[in-house]
Amino acid sequence: MIHCVVYVIDACKVSLLTTNMLDKFAAIRKKTNQLGLPQILLLTKIDEACPLVAEDLKNVYRSVYIEKKAREVSDSLGIPLSCVLPVKNYSGELDLDLETDILLFSAVQQMLNYADSFFENQVIEDQDQLDLYRSNEHLRPVGSDETKHQIL
């Protein structure tokens, strides 16, 4: 069972998404919306897309270029801007980097939060259905003996 859908798009290639690709994303989004699944988009390779971010990853939320790309992909795919998460890929590094890890772990945290919310909503909906089936109120005929005694 799927609990959260995550799209992954290279920040350098946002402008290169074809109409055919956008249509495929739209079809996937339509189905996931029907199923009530939460959706997140990871905007990857932000350091390659923006020199300011490459210089210091802490600039990711100050970068006008990254914000522009996030808005562009949000508008193109119909995903709320708050669900577009910028991340830096580990590609040539041999050692771990704290700023990279923070962005990646933050994205994983968001995925887990959305999946957890999905589970909570499922439990509430399932509980409401179980309560309906546990109760015999919906099965009792309108003019039953118990109803007559209550009326008197």
How would you sum up this structure in a few lines?
The chain is mainly alpha-helical. It is built from six helices and three strands, in the order βαβαααβαα.
Helix content: 55-70%
| Count of beta strands | 3
CATH topology: Rossmann fold
Please summarize the sheet with the most strands: 3 strands, parallel
Computed Rg: 24 Å
The overall average pLDDT, rounded, is 85
CATH classification class: Alpha Beta
Number of helices: 6
Q: Which spans of ≥5 residues are poorly predicted at pLDDT below 50?
A: none
Report the β-strand fraction as a percent range.
Answer: 5-15%
Detailed description of the structure:
This protein has 152 residues and is mainly alpha-helical. It has one domain: Rossmann fold. Helix content is 55%, strand content 10%. It has six helices and three strands; from the N terminus they run βαβαααβαα. Strands 1-2-3 form a three-stranded parallel sheet, with helices on both faces. Helix 1 links the parallel strand 1 and strand 2. The longest helix is centred in the C-terminal third of the chain and has 37 residues. The radius of gyration is 24 Å and the shape is globular. The model has no long low-confidence stretch (mean pLDDT 85).
